């Protein structure tokens, strides 16, 4: 790896109208000290591959080592510098009209140091971006760059954590026995204890895991799954009455099923069936 390499995107009006666009990317074999009293103009993701450094931001001093990365918001004063060399990092700089709102939707609300559970996945994504820049001599398609960047941000959501604990991806894996149980038993009554027993944890912790991973309660997820199965029945079995479909997907009350279905899909089960009827 060279000591440093920078790739600057040749921005056009197309980029500025995209929700996300890449500004620059590159790496330092040994990142030097950087001090920005007024912050930086774009969003940045830095990933550490060796050595150790310090990020000073918002009155905090945070360590950045191998297997960690830092997400920096624009306009936030900060300083970072190596304390164990070589401090090797790669970075991606990005911006866009929806960059901040997208990060918020992924629960990244401010500049932060993150633990990475699968650094090789993120490294592969950044390497692909660098490779595309190099291959196209710094002229990467606006749409292609935006697509690659969106994939990187989703990987950040899946494979990072604010503490040295489980990432969102690992929480999904932890909940897999519950997902499997719901898939097999959705047509029957399911209790919170049934779900907790699949993980051998308490019902309360089961709710915490669902909220942390999916942003919803266990029974809200079950109802959505049942509605999804009901949509399959409605389309595949045009002669089956709605009340029987409600029973098949685990609802004891047809009226409650119809209410939930309309809230979810914006139309009644029969209206949905007519809209998706095979002609």
UniProtKB/TrEMBL annotation:
> Does the record bear DNA-binding in its keywords?
yes
- InterPro entries recorded: AraC-bd, Homeodomain-like_sf, HTH-like, HTH_AraC, HTH_AraC-typ_CS, Tscrpt_reg_AraC-type_HTH
- Which source organism? Paenibacillus marchantiophytorum
Write out the entry's keywords from A to Z. Answer: DNA-binding, Transcription, Transcription regulation
Asked whether the keyword DNA-binding is assigned, the reply is yes
Task: State the name under which the record lists this protein.
Answer: Transcriptional regulator
Check the record and name the PROSITE patterns matching this protein: HTH_ARAC_FAMILY_1 (PS00041), HTH_ARAC_FAMILY_2 (PS01124)
Q: Where is the HTH araC/xylS-type domain?
A: 176-275
Instruction: Name a Pfam family for this protein.
Output: HTH_18
